[in-house]
């Protein structure tokens, strides 16, 4: 994956050549010879739907403390975890236990068509049985209360703090500290992406000022789900604007680059302060399809099995639970979601340029109907069985 350096953006003037190069070269002319070149934020999101973000502010110690806390939390007995469930709120705060969330793509015809167009060896693990994912999740809201009455109160509910004392005393400081690191990074990337797409710097950041952002770790019990080719999170896209991840202790994330149709096992550089960013459905909608939400899955692969063996030897007293260090950045629920005309026009140029050089899109034309962001979220939650 391409690496975008947030340090350059933060340390220099937005008008400097280095910052412009990092943000902007988004193939503005979309000629066939520049289709999907990638060397900065906007290019990377258009081409791959994902990128690695280098940010020197990120602390590996904070991520490790976060992973330790969530391993401890999800190793509790199920009755303790159930105290933190809020199904009446669409599971948008608190815990979601395993075998609850269904991968939308299992029954979604456009998504199944995407899979069918992939070469057989590049397809995700089979999800057509439509079994719910064997992962748990916790949603911790990291949002600013809007100065108006939201039309979507269930999407903007109060946080749930776990009840167990040995978890509770560490919970809020750890969640807030690591969550702030990822929120700051992704909001700066929003600024870079806006500049790179030829928009005012604040366009995306302001649109998400009151978004119901979520620190959203997922947990997979590797004591139970440790066989190679086990699906932990079935093939899907994220419904939010941008998703950002810190390092997990266990590999297993595969993404599909828009320009190749190839399955890519995501690997962080072995050392250094990096975060992974993926485009979500809200960005796809707002850009009129210029940026496509990235398809991905989480599975037990060979690297996962090796990591389980290493972790068992190195830390035999720690729970064998795969925690994803994940943050979902949302647009504000009451924001009017409609394609930005300049981006929608460029999306049509991208599609035409792709066809000219024999690279058909993996997905057919999509109609991006105007709606409130909250309505878009509710529609997606119904697809994955989290909201009636």
TrEMBL record:
InterPro entries: IPNS-like_FE2OG_OXY, IPNS-like_sf, Iron_ascorbate_oxido_reductase. PANTHER family: 2-OXOGLUTARATE (2OG) AND FE(II)-DEPENDENT OXYGENASE SUPERFAMILY PROTEIN-RELATED. Residues 230-330 form the Isopenicillin N synthase-like Fe(2+) 2OG dioxygenase domain. This is Isopenicillin N synthase-like Fe(2+) 2OG dioxygenase domain-containing protein. It comes from the Eukaryota. Pfam families: 2OG-FeII_Oxy.
């Amino acid at each position: 994956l391409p690496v975008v350096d947030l340090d350059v953006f933060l340390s220099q003037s937005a008008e400097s050549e280095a910052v412009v190069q990092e943000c902007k070269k988004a193939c503005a002319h979309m000629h066939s010879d520049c289709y999907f070149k990638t060397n900065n934020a906007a290019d990377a999101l258009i081409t791959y739907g994902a990128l690695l973000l280098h940010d020197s502010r990120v602390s590996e110690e904070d991520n490790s403390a976060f992973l330790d806390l969530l391993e401890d939390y999800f190793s509790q007995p199920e009755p303790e975890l159930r105290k933190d469930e809020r199904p009446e709120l669409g599971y948008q705060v608190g815990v979601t236990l395993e075998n609850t969330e269904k991968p939308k793509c299992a029954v979604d015809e456009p998504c199944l068509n995407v899979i069918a167009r992939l070469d057989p060896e590049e397809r995700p693990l089979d999800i057509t049985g439509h079994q719910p994912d064997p992962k748990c999740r916790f949603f911790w809201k990291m949002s600013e209360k809007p100065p108006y009455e939201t039309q979507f109160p269930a999407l903007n509910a109060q946080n749930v703090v776990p009840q167990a004392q040995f978890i509770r005393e560490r919970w809020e400081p750890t969640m807030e500290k690591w969550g702030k690191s990822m929120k700051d990074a992704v909001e700066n990337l929003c600024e870079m992406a806006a500049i790179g797409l030829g928009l005012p710097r604040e366009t995306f950041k302001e649109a998400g000022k009151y978004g119901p952002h979520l620190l959203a770790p997922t947990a997979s019990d590797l004591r139970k789900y440790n066989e190679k080719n086990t699906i932990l999170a079935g093939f899907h896209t994220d419904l939010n604007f941008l998703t950002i991840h810190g390092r997990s202790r266990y590999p297993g994330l595969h993404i599909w680059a828009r320009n190749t149709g190839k399955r890519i096992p995501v690997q962080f550089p072995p050392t250094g302060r990096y975060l992974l960013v993926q485009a979500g459905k809200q960005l796809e909608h707002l850009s009129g399809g210029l940026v496509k939400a990235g398809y991905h899955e989480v599975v037990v692969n060979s690297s996962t099995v090796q990591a389980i063996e290493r972790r068992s030897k190195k830390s035999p007293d720690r729970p064998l639970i795969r925690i994803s260090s994940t943050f979902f950045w949302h647009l504000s629920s009451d924001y009017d979601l409609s394609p930005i005309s300049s981006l929608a026009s460029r999306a049509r140029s991208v599609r035409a340029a792709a066809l000219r050089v024999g690279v058909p899109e993996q997905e057919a034309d999509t109609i991006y109907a105007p709606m409130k962001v909250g309505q878009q979220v509710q529609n997606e939650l119904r697809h994955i069985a989290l909201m009636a």
